[in-house]
Write a structure and sequence with these properties.
Layout: E1 18-20, E2 27-29, E3 33-35, E4 38-41, E5 44-45, E6 49-52, E7 57-66, E8 68-71, E9 74-87, E10 92-104, E11 109-116
Parallel strand pairs: 3-6, 4-7, 5-7, 6-8, 7-9, 8-9, 9-10, 10-11
Antiparallel strand pairs: 1-2
Length: 135
């Protein structure tokens, strides 16, 4: 499992709901999360899966970090996905996406910068996308 804050690889028991990263000393949430309505936040992270349902919208100022992403609704901001990201038909992503794999279904909207990094060890949660303007 990867820490959503520093990217360090951790060995976590499958029954754990949360733990502290020994590298950055920050709390890690293990549970899968589902967004079914409007949510605006500074940052969102989970070591589990993130599903944004068809009527769900998540807007982040900093970033979303998750193991997997299933986007049926809308996401605005930066997303870092350690495994697979899928934007379903009708799903909308506006911003930046870093992921190991990406599936974009016909009818999905993708506006912004995408970085596919097959070697997960090179996927960093801190480095900005190349060419990205500072805000």
């Amino acid at each position: 499992m990867h820490c959503p804050h520093c990217g360090a690889v951790q060995d976590i028991p499958t029954a754990a709901l949360s733990c502290v990263c020994p590298k950055c000393n920050r709390s890690m949430q293990m549970e899968d999360r589902c967004i079914s309505n409007y949510s605006a936040t500074t940052e969102f992270s989970t070591c589990g899966s993130l599903a944004v349902e068809k009527k769900g919208t998540i807007i982040v100022q900093k970033k979303v970090v998750a193991a997997t992403l299933a986007l049926h609704g809308a996401l605005k901001g930066e997303a870092i996905v350690f495994e697979s990201a899928k934007i379903s038909s009708g799903g909308q992503l506006k911003g930046r996406l870093k992921a190991r794999t990406l599936v974009v279904e016909e009818g999905a909207t993708l506006e912004g910068y995408v970085e596919i990094t097959p070697n997960i060890e090179h996927l960093s949660v801190d480095s900005p996308a190349p060419g990205a303007a500072a805000s």
